[in-house]
Amino acid sequence: MGPHPAVAAIRLAVRRALNDLLTDHQHTPGEHPRTTAERPPSPLVLVACSGGADSMALASALAFEAPKLGIRAGGVTVDHGLQAGSDLRAGEVAQRLRDLGLDPVESVAVTVGRDGGPEAAARDARYAALDAAAERHGAAAILLGHTRDDQAETVLLGLARGSGIRSLSGMAAVSGAGGRYRRPFLHLDRQTARTACMAQSLPVWDDPHNADPAYTRSRLRHEGLPALEKALGKGVVEALARTAQLSRDDADALDTWARQAAAAVRDSAGLLECAKLHELPPAVRRRVLRRAAIEAGAPAGSLFARHIEEVDRLITGWRGQGAINLPGKVVAQRQGGRLVIRQS
Predict the structure, then answer these.
(1) Using CA atoms, how far apart are residues 16 and 189, in angstroms rounded to an integer?
(2) Which are the contacts of 292, defined by CB distance < 8 A and separation ≥ 6?
């Protein structure tokens, strides 16, 4: 008798992600095949685990699949220090990972700042800790337990911000420097992960923050999405996940076009020429402007669509207006048919 269908589904998803990882590392451009004696040690893959159903299901699947592929499997849990007893909880999660046979396993405490609000600050601190853990252990990748439901929420949050097609593309299956982060569950729903934990009698911790209406994502999860499904019928989550993939494909194509166009719209001194910018399609031109602002020192996370629209009007609606102030003390202004973007 085979495993429970939910368990089989999560294991298959992890197996595919690990096979993709092995393929990526075996076909690194410029490298020649190595002899058996020259091959590096088995790659290490870490799972980021909060103790919730999604990440516990992911950890159990990694522990099951990794040895069959010659991959070492470890885990890391991050203590955000936002709740009383969080250090004890993190210690319990770390022990559960060890009980699954993962090694190395560590619990990392972080200090959460205030920039961008509590959710963004916690996310920044968490990813910084995960990056450091990957470097410390020499991990080839870190698996994250984001599900199709998480993807749908991310798309809706992007839509609410009005940040353009890139924000609608949600989370990528592979992201981070060198493809460090892998999300095997983006095509699986949250209930499948929870069912898999129940079928394996895996202990699960439900973070009270996930049900706290003080957090935007929590309100969306417990109020917004259910309301949409009530009004539009089942299938909203699946449709939003499809939208994410289609948007990502379009955004990637436009980004490539913009990178190619960026050099063609500059003069011999490297300054942007307004006349040439004006000839570009708006979606491409705004990407060129955004890239130029970031290169000048504007923080990407603080640069919103409204900022780029203001800069764009220096090209499309020139009426002698003054300089545009951007985040990071960057200024954009039109001078003699050229667009100058620099730090003030």
Answers:
(1) 17
(2) 262, 272, 339, 341
